[in-house]
Structures are given as structure tokens and as C-alpha cells.
Write a structure and sequence with these properties.
This protein has one domain (5-186): Pnp Oxidase, Chain A (Roll). It is built from 5 helices and 16 strands. The chain has helices at residues 10-20, 69-77, 90-95, 106-110, 171-174; strands spanning 24-25, 27-32, 38-43, 46-51, 54-60, 62-63, 66-67, 79-84, 114-115, 124-125, 130-142, 147-159, 164-165, 168-169, 178-179, 185-186. The chain has a 7-stranded antiparallel sheet. β13 (164-165) and β14 (168-169) form a beta hairpin. Its cofactor is FMN.
Length: 205
């Protein structure tokens, strides 16, 4: 099969790409509006881009002609929290993708409890096994739709007790969920461990 992207509209290309680039980790993001409304939304175009300092990137698209509330909030306040959700939170993650007016808090709508962050003003979700307090560092726009790639620095990690062993996260215990095409999600399948290969250390520490 051959598919020429120049012959497709943005929506059809989106459906194609989200079915190919799988599974995708989900950034579950809390942010505050200028009016103090706590927003919550999931983003599956998400990865890390630097380890020192630790930096994460999420791609935020538009809803109609305007950018999503998360992009507005992050660029306005320059603070946000990225959470990693586990399997028991799958329905809540999905429900938080419902589009609400900016004055409606998805956190309140879903009845989720929060905790104060340590370095930023944006609260974090108490139920998430991982929460990363972030400060905005850079925004790049791509494509005809001008999707915004937002990069932030992690200034504090919060991890549920028992998730870290000898400095490494126990992925099975984390039980993260991933996004695939459409309103579908995935869990970890079989984990295959291969022999280690030599890699030059990233730093002396």
C-alpha cells in the first residue's frame, strides 16, 4: 500500500500517524489559568529531551481555531505538572480529554484530589504514581496547524513509595498506560530482557 500525505487532510493524517506511532506514553498535565482554574488534560505526543537538566516535551494541538487550554496556561504561567497514570486511572485519563470551557476544572469535574507542589504553584494529583513539577523553557511551532511543542524542565520528581529500586523505576510496579489509535489504550505486555551492551557513560556521576 502506498499513501501520499500530500493527498490527505490533517485529520486523516492524524488518524494514520496515531495508529503507526504506538504505543505512546501519556503526559497527564495539570496547569493553572490566569483566573486560577486548575486544568487537566492528557497528551500522547510526549517524550523526554534532556537528562541534565531533566526536560520533557509535549505537543499541544488546537481545538478548532484556538490552542488548547493547556498551551495557554503554560505560556501564561510557565508552570505545570506532568503525571504518569497507571491502569486504575485509565478511565479518568480518558474522561479528562473531554473538552470543557476554560472556566471548568476537569480536576473538580472528575472529583480528583490534589496535593501542593513544592517548587511551583500548580497542584499535583494525589492519585498518580508519578508527578513531575515543570517550569516552561521553550515553545516551537510545527506544520500548517502550528502545533506547539512545549519543553519544560523538571524541577521536582514525586514517585510513589516502592517504585524506585537502586535508582531505577520498577516499570511493572508502575503499571503505566499508553495510547494507541482512536479511543484505545494499552497496558504493558510481555517484557523481554536482553543482555546488556556497552554504552559510553553520559556523565562522570
Amino acid at each position: 500500500m502506498r499513501i501520499d500525505p500530500s493527498e490527505l487532510g490533517a485529520e486523516r493524517i492524524y488518524r494514520l500517524m496515531t495508529g503507526i506511532v504506538v504505543p505512546r506514553p501519556i503526559a497527564w498535565v495539570t496547569s493553572l489559568s490566569r483566573a486560577g482554574v486548575l486544568n487537566l488534560a492528557p497528551f500522547s505526543a510526549f517524550t523526554f529531551v534532556s537528562q541534565k537538566p531533566p526536560m520533557l516535551a509535549i505537543s499541544v494541538g488546537r481545538k478548532g481555531a484556538d490552542y488548547k487550554d493547556t498551551a495557554h496556561n503554560i505560556l501564561d504561567t510557565e508552570e505545570y505538572v506532568i503525571h504518569i497514570a497507571d491502569t486504575p486511572l485509565m478511565q479518568a485519563v480518558h474522561d479528562s480529554s473531554v473538552e470543557h470551557p476554560p472556566e471548568i476544572s476537569e480536576v473538580a469535574e472528575l472529583g480528583l484530589e490534589t496535593l501542593p507542589s513544592e517548587r511551583i504553584k500548580v497542584p499535583r494529583l494525589s492519585v498518580a504514581p508519578v508527578a513531575m513539577e515543570c517550569r516552561f523553557r521553550q515553545c516551537l511551532e510545527f506544520g500548517d496547524a502550528r502545533s506547539r511543542l512545549i519543553v519544560g524542565e523538571v524541577v521536582m520528581f514525586h514517585l510513589r513509595d516502592g517504585l524506585v529500586n537502586d535508582g531505577k523505576v520498577e516499570t511493572v510496579a508502575l503499571d503505566p498506560i499508553a495510547r494507541i489509535g482512536g479511543p484505545r489504550y494499552a497496558r504493558l505486555g510481555e517484557i523481554v530482557t536482553l543482555h546488556g551492551v556497552f554504552q559510553t557513560p553520559k556523565s562522570k556521576d
